[in-house]
Design goal:
heterotrimer; A mainly alpha (about 325); B alpha+beta (about 220); C alpha+beta (about 375); A: about 325 residues; 2 strands; globular; C: about 375 residues; alpha+beta; Cytochrome-c3 Hydrogenase, chain B; three-stranded antiparallel β-sheet; 8 strands; about 50% helix
Chain lengths: ~325, ~220, ~375
Amino acid sequence: MTTLLNIPLVIHLALPLTIILVYALVAIWGERKVAGFIQDRLGPMRVGGWHGWAQSIADLLKLIQKEDIIPANSSRFLFKFAPFMMFAASYAAFAVIPFSSGYIGSNINIGVFYLLAVTSVLTLSIIMAAWASNNKWSLLGGMRSAAQMVSYEIPTIATVLTVIVVSGSLNLMTVTEMQSGNDILGFLPNWFIFQNPFLIVAFVIFFISILAESHRVPFDLPESESELVAGYQTEYSGMRWAMFMLAEYADMLLLSLLGAVLFFGGWNSPFGDFMSGPLWGFFWFMLKGLLLVFVMMWIRWTLPRYRVDQLMHICWSILIPLSFINLILVALWELIF
Amino acid sequence: MLTVVKQGWSTFKSIFTGMGITIRHFFGPSVTLQYPDEKMELPENSRAKLYVNIDDCIGCFLCARACPVNCIDIETAPATADVDLGKTSTGNPKRFWLTRFDIDMAKCMYCDLCVHPCPTNCIYMVPDYEYSEFDRSNLIYSFSNLVPEQVADVKEKAEAEAEEKKRQREEMQKAKAEAARKKKEMEAKKEEERSEKDGKEKGRAPSKPENDGGE
Amino acid sequence: MIELISDTGERREMTINMGPQHPSTHGVLRLELVLDGEIIKKVKPHIGYLHRCFEKYAEEVGDYAKVIPYTDRMDYVSAMNQEHGYVLALERMLELELPERVEHIRVIVAEMQRIASHLLGIGAFGLDLGAFSPFLYLFTEREKILDIFEKISGARLLYNYMAVGGLMRDVHPEFKTDVAEFVKTFRPKIKELDDLLSYNRIFIKRTANVGVLPVEVALNYAASGPVLRGSGMKWDLRRNDPYSIYDRFEFDIPVGEGEMGTLGDCWDRYIVRVREMEQSLRIIEQALDSMPDEGDVMQAIPKRIRMKEGEVYVRTESPRGELGYFIASNNSASPHRVKARAPSFVHLCLLPAISKGSLIADMVAIVGSIDIVLGEVDR
């Protein structure tokens, strides 16, 4: 008879969740601090003492206490269910992310495939939320986001494919392990981005696509506050809205971590054996992911946003052809060298 | 194809220029103040709150009349003869008790129009901006320095004096009227005598003049 | 369930309400949009949410001077210009001679106010398109102007600084150095704005060829100010019908040239405002040079304004366009009739003409580029 308390299962459930929750609190605070510093302000300064570090906790407490408003004419079940489904999709995708050399939720051979498949549920949940709200602004936002996410999944997948062509494995742990060591030009780490010049192009395309996938400026059309009020989130309030927020930040981290695994060597230390090991690995991995998140924030507070037709134009007539050409070039490079 | 590459290049260039500017600001100093901890120095002549130096007020109502939103409410009582209210710092004699000088800061729109007509410069704006209240009625500022008993007293005295004055005036008027009547009677008598002399009939004597004017 | 999409009409259209609580309608404007997908078929602006009976108030208040604070509140973003127009109208009626110093200070503050107003207009335009940071950078600059205004008038937004025949207060002794300092520090900021926003490719993509206003249409609708100049018409009342002492200064009139797309698009209207700020700096510099240091600013203020019977219409160039005051007097204490010709109202009327067939996102850009202030539209 097995024990009811399955220790490994609890760890696998709790560890990524803790990471996501702690990260979300830090990232929301961080986003506001980054915005503040960029705009010559200071951002939150009062809650908790040092630079208002407890601001997101206070916000969370406030959101929990808020009334749960459900519009009278909404589709109640879908309206209630959508935020949880969205978060579940983001959370489930973390299962295949190798956080360090010692920890991966599920070491499966189709890791990348699983990740891409699960995250496409996000689109579904956004449309669900938008439609269930019975609000025209929500609907417009939902349609925009559906079009945007479906379109940008193609260049994302195409660039991920280029890495798979180089690595030859869909298992993210294996992909990371292949990037160990510092052999390129004698000192550069064996990260894929340094291995192949066309992978730099691939990374640029990948980064643009994940900006669009996670609805960040300049592609934040689904919730562009100056056009669509708040897009699909318009009717949400309190904890359900917080779930959307959480899922969005989790999605940002997920895609950034994916970028770190695919192009920047995952948990590998940039200094070879120096500062390596499971815990250091976790540190390096999160650092790389958070750096990409920071760049996303930095871009957000710099640029205006694209229009919806321009967004589609960029995807279909620039990024998709470019990413496929790039895929062929990477394959040729691998064949020749 | 070339134009696409060129456009893409210029897009990237402008994006990186913009990001360069924002990162410079990121490491630059903040321009904001942490309000309750540090406060902005307002200039001396800042218009944030109305203040009345009631010792200098002569109760001329010019400010109340200049106010476009009628937020100044003044009531005066004339000083009795036995009191000397003194002079303002500008040398104008004061002739009125200010039984009420209320300014409703909830109505005030800080336009400065009441400040300029004041002959003694006793109403002016001060740079004090932290006076929020939970209850709107707390925003009515009373500048009168008289306690309610004093107000009643002063009003009573002023009324009494006004009564007295009225009485005096009435008496004076009565006396005047009396004198006029006597004079007329005298004249009438004379006339009578004259007419009697002339052997003619005389009309009625002039009626007594009305004395209740001014009630 | 409420019917979401109507089946009437050839195409299935959706009517949607933009405002009055929408984030980018610059106040309380309500736009009724008829959409086909995201394409706008019809726009109908609804106004009046900020109506405060300016004209009736001016007739009833019982004093010409009491109207001046009210003109501040019409276009609260450029209060000095509004006051300037109103007091100029009264002065023309009274045939008052103004001291040189008063005229110079008025021109300097009016031009600074023009810069402040454009800073807000440009910043809010960027904000509508999703660029948040330029808005706050520009606000920092605007604060510097407001600081100077607070020193001279005591207020930051609604100054009531100009009086008929003079100014309510004299400027502080360091006024000239303060303004010169501002002019010096502000020039590089325009360059920074150009790098960050004006010539940003995404911004250009969002604004070029959007909301094109041909010059004939602009003239037919009686557009003025940056909106008309953005369409390529060289028309500036400071030059074409000089008031105050504007005829003494040298400055250019920037017009739209269709650099990034079609002549008269949103980008042209935007860049006209940016270039106007530079010209305003030039005017301020010249006015600072020729401004007399001594002189009483209040000597010409009449104790009581008594108008003789008559009418006057004075138009001035406010940051938003031609601001006209028509005042009819019948020899009593308050005006018989006051009519304000507000440029924002005229430009709002343009909206349906230039936004047909564009997307919702363009709608936001167009509303931002004509830079309306609802206080002035509704009055």
